[in-house]
């Protein structure tokens, strides 16, 4: 029942925030903070070992019939991986509320309602284990995010919002067809018509069918991740979204793609995924380098961060399809660290735009002199993003490379070049925006004020988080170990050329 | 007729009686309010009578009708939709003082009567009579009491094209009768099964019936009339055309194919699949080009009928259930969407609020109606938590379950294209309110409370059955399945 509350609290909070918006603009803000804080503590209370009975990795589960006629149940299950991602979701949601305090002054109630509802949808995605329920939440989370971009975004917000929606919805429908074919194949094999993930695991099917179904799932998740060549929606959506929207998109929504790959694609179709792994890993490597190159060429600071996001997600794709313990641990850390560091960078860009009314780095320069705190944090998170040892991203990328080295040496070597490219664009950002001489534009303008106290607290919190992940990631590994072990067991190819994978586990 | 068949047929008899009573009331006293209220109360009574008529087993009422779960389910949809249209019509007509308004309800009732008996028809005679009762009343409704010249034009267009399609239908029926010597669906099925599967008479007859029905369902390439009629007719009538007539015709053709063409040959299925794919893609692509919301919804309804054909092609239990749920979802959603268009319109101004610009800033000026319209459009696009989502899911289940690869692919592609124009309306509603000077939007005097209440009721239905569809599916299994 705890899991249901986890979902219900932000959902109801959204309604309350919407209704309270008419009375006073601060009410929705406080309601959102309160709701997310409660939700966070509920999620925190779930940290701990897995339940002893039944499936070995579940920390909590909940199941009720929903549409029994079609074999659909309302089935929620939580393991370490879902729990960590949910904690990240709620924390970034909380931060989004704080940093929107002064940015969003229009229709405050509706804004916070949409924010809370998209958090609800994402939590649902991380919890749902019935494939229909999963798809339901998968679609549901799009709507509030669409409104966040379309109503509170920047200049080209309508274009970006529609593009975002069409990309994700279209790929989602392909996944739906794949889900249904899987369900019918399972029905033919066993006589049961069910959408239950645990029942569908290990469904026997011929390799061609398995390959196409795997591809159906893969496309949906690759669009969301996003992997090159499905990434074109992301720079637009990120750039046009309000700061809170960018934080949620980068921090949380992208993680649903990675989560889907880990939870569904590989365990449901182990053989097909194994056969496809070299191509997927190659896509990941292409993504790392190509997006880094694009990031290097941007003048718009927000687009730079957006492309860096695509580059980081390339590592995630590489790690998932390497599919060994080291790489998967790296993927988990990479997801958390990317959520924190990219979220922080988006907040800083948003704060900068609020102050100097531009995101164009050609008009910046020498900001360190006028706004030292903002600039310092900008540099910290930029170097976190380039993978400096001691900060979270390093652990993630290092483990992913270590894991994928056991699977494919050439791809790993090429991917490692991405680290250099990462250093190039991250340092370029710092150099162009914060260092150097103050541009004439900046001189004539009114001197911008530095970060306010709430922003400073948020930034300090995020910094501690990224530092913690970088210096002592062991608690994270402990929390996800059981879940990953089960997934790995399910996702190991049954026979044949699987030996390579089996040996890869340390 | 036996007592059992009288009891089973009671809702339809009641509807006929209500029609006569309303006619007499108009003769006694001309009052818009009286005519509207007696119509609404009559339709409510008919709806209440439906469950009592539910027989334990199908009852044959004369050779023309059979009253079973399917007939009652679709009759219920027709009556419920007609009730909503009647209420919305009152709101729409009440704000205009132009001409007599009372006979409108008479036409509405006769059209409903024609539509309600169609799902129960098992004979060419009742099929054709029901359809003509519906079409001729509709003709009156489309051109009714409107100050706009376009309405009369639309009426004539509907008369001529509808007449042509009826002629096709009739000729097809005649060919089949000439071949088999019977007009009862079940007999046709039995005789056709025993006879030559490649009989030219029968095949030509089925093809012509299909053409006639495709006209009424506005499937590509027989859809030309749809956008013009939808645009020119008053918004509540558009809702009636879009919902009630489609449900009735779809239900009767579904029954015809189950009973008479059970062994439907491959070429027929191929033809249907092509029509379905053309409708899904054509409807959605043409809708992209529209700046008029009513025309856009017209093309979108073409696409939705194309989606429904996927369930039709799937046949079997799953297909029939999917079609029933999708029609229910389509009814709730379209009634809501056209209802909101109607509520925002002032008929006296000479046009409905149908330009995309009329919807600019609606989220600020009328937040409730805007939010409702947003959910209706999301439902048309198949996004949760709405009935449209479950309906589309059901259709894809049926399509995938019977291995209809190309129609399902077209459904997916069509849905993605469709998103664009639905979202365009959402975007327009979210834009800033236009400066009054540059706006040509007719400013509605006020939206009546009961109009808002009807929309609210539809909205509750839309979301409740979209998140917890089990009761609706149980009902469909009990009646239709």
Radius of gyration of chain A: 22 Å
Give the overall pLDDT of chain A as a whole number: 88
The proportion of strand residues of chain B reads under 5%
Overall radius of gyration of chain B: 21 Å
How many angstroms separate the termini of chain A?
37 Å
Alpha plus pi helix count of chain A? 22
Poorly predicted sequence stretches spanning 5 or more consecutive residues of chain A: 496-506
Q: Which strand order spans the largest sheet of chain B, edge to edge or round the barrel?
A: 1-2
Report the total helices of chain B: 19
Span between termini of chain B:
27 Å
Chain oligomer state: heterodimer
Class by alpha and beta content of chain A: mainly alpha
Explain what you see.
The complex is a heterodimer of chains A (506) and B (481). With 506 residues, chain A is an all-alpha fold. Chain A has one domain. Chain A has 22 helices and two strands. Chain A has a two-stranded antiparallel sheet. The longest helix of chain A has 34 residues, at 157-190. The two termini of chain A are 37 Å apart. The relative contact order of chain A is 0.10. Mean pLDDT of chain A is 88; it is low at 496-506. Chain B is mainly alpha-helical. Chain B has a domain at 277-481. Chain B contains 19 helices and two strands. The longest helix of chain B has 32 residues, at 149-180. The mean pLDDT of chain B is 89.
Question: Which secondary structure elements does this structure contain, and how are they paired or packed?
Answer:
The complex is a heterodimer of chains A (506) and B (481).
Chain A lengths: L1 H19 L5 H20 L14 E8 L4 E7 L1 H20 L8 H20 L3 H10 L1 H11 L4 H34 L6 H4 L6 H18 L8 H8 L2 H26 L1 H27 L4 H22 L2 H32 L10 H4 L1 H14 L6 H14 L3 H25 L6 H5 L8 H19 L2 H18 L7 H6 L2
Chain B lengths: L2 H26 L3 H22 L5 E3 L3 E3 L1 H26 L7 H16 L6 H19 L6 H32 L4 H10 L5 H17 L8 H8 L2 H25 L6 H23 L4 H22 L1 H29 L17 H4 L1 H15 L5 H15 L3 H26 L18 H19 L2 H10 L2
Antiparallel strand pairs in B: 1-2
Helix pairs in contact in B: 1-2, 1-4, 2-3, 2-4, 3-4, 3-10, 3-13, 4-5, 4-10, 5-6, 5-10, 6-8, 6-9, 9-10, 9-12, 10-12, 10-13, 11-12, 11-17, 12-13, 12-16, 12-17, 13-15, 13-16, 13-18, 15-17, 15-18, 16-18
